[in-house]
Design goal:
By secondary structure, the chain is an alpha/beta fold. The chain contains 10 helices and 14 strands. α5 packs antiparallel against α10.
Length: 295
C-alpha cells in the first residue's frame, strides 16, 4: 500500500481523500494544513494516521510515500520541488505548473531524485473514459475525425483572489484544462497546431483529427463532449466525471465509487512498479495541455 499525505485541505481535498479511501493500493496516511485545528478535524473525520501544520515536517516522516498537492496553482512548482527534495513521490492537482519551463524543471528534478511525478487529471482515468479510450484504440468508432468538448460554469459565488491575479489564474487554467486533456487523450495524437480564441481553441492533431474546446466563467454551456469517428460516435455530458455515455445511440454505464480513484490507483501502480513517470499523464501529456493554453 502506498501511504499518501494530502497537502492543502481546501474544497478539492475532500474529493481527493474519497478517491484515496476507495483505492485498492493506497491509504490515507497524513493530512497537512497551515492550521493544525483544521488538520486534526480532517484526521479525525477521515481516520488519517497523522496531522501536520508544517509541510516540511510532514515530508520528514519516513513512513510517507507520496504527497498529493492541493494548494493554489501558483504555489505548485515550489511545493513539488520541496517534496522532491525529500525524495517523496508527487501527484499534483491540475494545472501542475503554469509554464512550460516550470513543468520541465519539475520533471527534470524528479528524474534526478528518482521520484515519480504526475499531474492529476482524473478525466483520463475515470472508468468510463478508460473504457471509451479502449474502444477508440480498438477502432470501434473507426478513424476519429472530430472532437468537441466544453466545460463552463457561470460564477455565482466568490472564489479566491488568486484565481484572477496570480500565475495560473483564469478559467482556462481552472476548468478549461478538462476539455483540453480529454480531447488530447481521445485524439491519440500529438498536436500539430493550435488556434486560440479567448477561452476557446481549435486543436489540429498530426493524425488529422480536429478538436474544438470551450470554457467560460461568464456563461453556462451544455458541458458535453462529442467524439465523431468514421464508424460511430460518442456523446457524454459532464465527461470529466460521468458514469454513462451514449455510444452509437445506445447507453453504456460503468461503476465508479469516486472519480478520483482511477488516477490515484494508476499513480500508486506506477510507483509499485518502480516507474518515475506515468505512461498516460506523462511529461509530454502535460506539455501538450500547456501548448493549448499558450504558456
Amino acid at each position: 500500500m502506498i501511504r499518501i499525505g494530502i497537502y492543502g485541505l481546501g474544497k478539492i481535498s475532500r474529493r481527493v481523500i474519497q478517491g484515496v479511501l476507495s483505492s485498492n493500493n493506497a491509504c490515507l496516511y497524513a493530512v497537512c494544513s497551515s492550521s493544525i485545528e483544521k488538520a486534526n478535524i480532517f484526521k479525525k473525520e477521515y481516520q488519517a494516521e497523522k496531522a501536520y501544520d508544517n509541510y516540511e515536517r510532514m515530508l520528514e516522516d519516513r513512513n510517507l510515500d507520496l504527497v498529493y498537492i492541493c494548494t493554489p496553482n501558483y504555489l505548485h512548482t515550489k511545493h513539488i520541488q520541496i517534496a522532491l527534495s525529500y525524495r517523496k513521490h508527487v501527484v499534483c492537482e491540475k494545472p501542475m505548473c503554469v509554464s512550460t519551463k516550470e513543468l520541465n524543471d519539475c520533471f527534470d528534478y524528479a528524474k534526478r531524485q528518482n521520484c515519480f511525478l504526475m499531474e492529476a487529471h482524473k478525466t483520463v482515468f475515470t472508468p468510463l473514459n478508460q473504457k471509451l479510450f479502449e474502444m477508440i484504440s480498438n477502432e470501434e468508432f473507426g478513424e476519429i475525425k472530430s472532437i468537441d468538448a466544453q466545460y463552463a460554469t457561470r460564477l455565482t459565488e466568490q472564489i479566491s483572489d488568486w484565481h484572477f491575479s496570480r500565475p495560473g489564474s483564469g478559467c482556462m487554467f481552472d476548468i478549461g484544462v478538462y476539455p483540453i486533456c480529454y480531447a488530447n487523450r481521445m485524439a491519440k495524437s500529438s498536436i500539430f497546431r493550435v488556434s486560440r480564441f479567448q477561452d476557446e481553441a481549435l486543436i489540429e492533431y498530426e493524425n488529422g483529427c480536429v478538436a474544438h474546446i470551450a470554457t467560460s466563467w461568464d456563461v453556462d454551456m451544455e458541458n458535453t463532449a462529442h467524439i465523431y469517428g468514421t464508424k460511430g460516435s460518442v456523446s457524454c455530458k459532464n465527461f470529466w466525471k460521468n458514469t454513462e455515455a451514449a455510444v452509437n445511440g445506445s447507453k453504456i454505464t460503468v461503476v465508479q465509487e469516486s472519480d478520483f480513484t482511477g488516477e490515484i490507483e494508476h499513480a500508486c501502480t506506477c510507483i509499485e512498479n518502480g516507474m518515475i513517470e506515468s505512461p498516460v499523464m506523462s511529461r509530454k501529456a502535460s506539455l501538450e495541455i500547456l501548448k493549448v493554453i499558450g504558456v
